[in-house]
Automatic annotation (TrEMBL):
Cofactor or coenzyme needed: Mg(2+)
Pathway assignment: Glycan metabolism; bacterial cellulose biosynthesis
One of the record's GO cellular component terms: endomembrane system
Record's bilayer topology term: Multi-pass membrane protein
Keywords assigned: c-di-GMP, Cell inner membrane, Cell membrane, Cellulose biosynthesis, Glycosyltransferase, Membrane, Transferase, Transmembrane, Transmembrane helix
EC number: 2.4.1.12
Enzyme class: transferase
Protein name: Cellulose synthase catalytic subunit [UDP-forming]
Localization per record: Cell inner membrane; Endomembrane system
Domain Glycosyltransferase 2-like as annotated: residue spans: 131-300
CDD domains to which the protein is assigned, alphabetical: CESA_CelA_like
C-alpha cells in the first residue's frame, strides 16, 4: 500500500518537478528562488526523520538538474573551435558529477543496518571454517600478528583451521607456520596473483566457509561468532563483509597533521555506501575481513581472476547467480593503512584499473542475473573511479581564461552564480546530512584532487586496453620514523606544467625559473606534515 502511494505521489508531482527544472529566470529571481530553497531545506534539516532526508535529496537533485539544464540551454555558445572543445569538456565533467550525485543519493538514502545473527547453542551445528592469510612480500613481523590473532579467535578449534598462503616462498615463513601450528601453503608460480593464491588454497582445504584476512589485518576474538550465524540462517548467503578499520594514519592524515579529527578516506565506503549496497543485495567483497561460503565459490569457479580487483568481481559473480551478500557494519579487525603516498597512489591505481576492467570485460549493466538496483550500485562504483579526468578538468579549466582569454562558459557571472549557488550548497548540505560523520566535503576534495593526476592515464588506458597491466601488491609494514620528500609522487602535478610554460613563454623563462626555485623550500620535509613522511 505504501509503495503504491509513493508511486502515485511521484506521478502527480512529476509535472511540478519538470517545471522547476526548465522554467527560466533572470538572475534576481533565480537568487530569490535559490535562497528560498536553501532556507527551507536548512529548516527541514533539524528533523532527523528518514522521510525528511528523502525530501531533501529530491530537492537537491531538482536544483542540480535545474543548473545542468541552464548550462545546457544557455551557456554552450562559443566563438571558436577551441572554446567549443574546452567548453564541452567542462560541461561533460559537470554531467559526470551530476550522475555521481544521483547515484550516490540512490545508494545512501536507504541504508540497511544489520545486527549480528547469533549462532545456535549447539556447537555441533557450527560450520567448519578455513582462515586464509595470503602474503607475498610483506615482512614477517607484520604477518606474525595477524596469524597469532587468528589463533585467538573464539571458535571451536576442531572446526577452525588457519592457513598462511605464502606466494613469496620464504623459508622463514614456513618455519614460523610450523612453530605456531598453522598450515603453510605455497605454489610453484604466482599466476593470477592474490586470486590465484586463494584459488590454489581452495583445492587443498575442505572448510565449509572461507574467511580471508589480508596479512596486516588483526582480527578480534569474536570475528567468526559475529559473522558466521547468517550462513546458518540463510542457505543462499554467500558473503558477509565487515569494514576495513585502520589503526595507523594514512599519508593524508599524517602529512596534514589531522590524525583522527577527520574521517578516514575509506569510511564513506565502509559506512553509508556499503549499507546502501546491502539494502539492494549488492554488498561488495573487499578482499579481507570477510567470510565466504565455499559452495558459492565452487559455483563461480573460485575467486575471479579476470581483473585485478578480484574481490569486487567475485561478489558480482555471486550476485549474477542469485546468491545473497551481507554487510555487517561492525569493525572486527584492524589493519595498517598505506604508509607512503606513493604506495597509496599505487593501491588506488589498482582499484581504478580493476573497476574499469569490470566495466569492460563483465559490465554489470548487461547480462542476466542482476536487479536494476544492483546494476546501479555497480555502475556507481565503476564510474567513481573515472573521477580523475573530470577532476583534472575542473582544476585546469580556469587556466583557459587566465592564460588564453578563452570563454568556455557563455554567461554573466551573476547569472551563473545564481544557478550554481543552490546547486552546490544543497549538494554539500544534503551530502553532509547523509554522509557527514563518514566524509567531510573539503577533505574529500583534497583526497580526490591529489589522486586525480595519477589516475588519469591508467584509467584511460585500461578503458581502451582492459587486459594491459598487472596486479600491484600494496606494500605494508614500513618503518616511518624519518621525514622525507617523495619527489616521484608530486613531479607529474607541478614539474610538467612548469616545463610546458617554459617552452611557450621563453621570454619569461628566467622569471619562471626563479619561481620554481623559490618553490623548493616550501616543498621540503620540514613543511610536510611536521616532518612526517609523504
Amino acid at each position: 500500500m505504501k509503495k503504491s502511494l509513493f508511486w502515485l505521489l511521484a506521478l502527480v508531482l512529476s509535472p511540478v518537478a519538470v517545471l522547476v527544472v526548465i522554467t527560466p529566470m533572470d538572475s534576481q529571481k533565480q537568487y530569490i528562488f535559490g535562497l528560498l530553497s536553501i532556507g527551507i531545506l536548512f529548516l527541514m534539516g533539524f528533523s532527523k526523520r528518514r522521510s525528511v532526508s528523502v525530501i531533501m535529496v529530491v530537492t537537491s537533485l531538482l536544483m542540480s538538474t535545474r543548473y545542468m539544464y541552464f548550462r545546457l540551454t544557455q551557456t554552450l555558445h562559443f566563438n571558436s573551435s577551441i572554446e567549443a572543445i574546452l567548453g564541452m569538456g567542462l560541461f561533460l565533467a559537470e554531467v559526470y558529477i551530476w550522475v555521481m550525485l544521483l547515484l550516490n543519493y540512490l545508494q545512501t538514502v536507504w541504508p540497511l543496518k544489520r545486527g549480528i545473527v547469533p549462532l545456535p547453542d549447539d556447537m555441533s551445528k557450527w560450520p567448519t571454517v578455513d582462515i586464509y592469510i595470503p602474503s607475498y612480500n610483506e615482512p614477517l613481523e607484520v604477518v606474525r600478528d595477524t596469524v597469532l590473532a587468528a589463533q585467538c579467535i573464539d571458535y571451536p578449534k576442531d572446526k577452525m583451521k588457519i592457513y598462511l598462503l605464502d606466494d613469496g616462498k620464504r623459508s622463514e615463513f614456513a618455519v614460523f607456520a610450523a612453530d605456531v601450528g598453522v598450515g603453510y601453503i605455497t605454489r610453484n608460480d604466482n599466476k593470477h596473483a592474490k586470486a590465484g593464491n586463494l584459488n590454489h588454497a581452495l583445492t587443498l582445504t575442505q572448510g565449509e566457509l572461507i574467511c580471508v584476512f589480508d596479512c596486516d589485518h588483526v582480527a578480534t576474538r569474536v570475528f567468526l561468532q559475529a559473522t558466521v550465524g547468517g550462513f546458518l540462517k540463510d542457505p543462499m548467503l554467500a558473503l558477509v563483509q565487515t569494514p576495513h578499520y585502520f589503526y595507523s594514519p594514512d599519508p593524508f592524515e599524517r602529512n596534514l597533521s589531522v590524525g583522527r579529527n577527520i574521517p578516514n578516506e575509506g569510511m564513506l565506503f565502509y559506512g553509508p555506501i556499503q549499507q546502501g549496497n546491502d539494502n539492494w543485495n549488492a554488498t561488495f567483497f573487499c578482499g579481507s575481513c570477510a567470510v565466504i561460503r565455499r559452495e558459492a565459490l565452487a559455483q563461480i569457479g573460485g575467486f575471479a581472476v579476470e581483473t585485478v580487483t578480484e574481490d569486487a568481481h567475485t561478489a558480482l559473480k555471486f550476485q549474477r547467480l542469485g546468491w545473497k551478500s551481507a554487510f555487517l557494519d561492525i569493525p572486527l579487525a584492524a589493519g595498517l593503512a598505506t604508509e607512503r603516498l606513493v604506495v597509496h597512489v599505487i593501491q588506488r591505481t589498482r582499484w581504478a584499473r580493476g573497476m574499469t576492467q569490470i566495466f569492460r570485460v563483465d559490465n554489470p549493466l548487461f547480462g542476466r542475473g542482476l536487479t536494476f538496483q544492483q546494476r546501479l550500485c555497480y555502475l556507481s562504483a565503476m564510474l567513481y573511479y573515472q573521477f580523475a579526468l573530470p577532476r583534472v578538468v575542473f582544476v585546469t579549466a580556469p587556466l583557459a581564461y587566465l592564460l588564453f582569454n578563452l570563454n568556455i562558459i557563455y554567461s554573466s557571472a551573476s547569472l551563473i552564480v545564481s544557478y550554481a549557488l543552490p546547486h552546490l550548497f544543497l549538494a554539500i548540505y544534503v551530502g553532509s546530512r547523509m554522509n557527514g560523520r563518514y566524509r567531510y566535503s573539503f577533505w574529500g576534495e583534497i583526497y580526490d584532487i591529489v589522486l586525480a593526476f595519477h589516475l588519469v592515464l591508467p584509467t584511460l588506458v585500461t578503458m581502451i586496453f582492459p587486459k594491459r597491466g598487472k596486479f600491484n601488491v600494496t606494500d605494508k609494514g614500513g618503518l616511518l620514523d624519518v621525514g622525507y620528500f617523495d619527489f616521484t609522487v608530486v613531479r607529474r602535478t607541478w614539474w610538467w606544467p612548469a616545463c610546458w610554460r617554459w617552452g611557450w613563454w621563453s621570454a619569461s623563462s628566467g622569471r619562471l625559473a626563479m619561481t620554481i626555485l623559490a618553490r623548493i623550500p616550501t616543498l621540503s620535509p620540514s613543511t610536510s606534515g611536521g616532518g612526517s613522511t609523504v
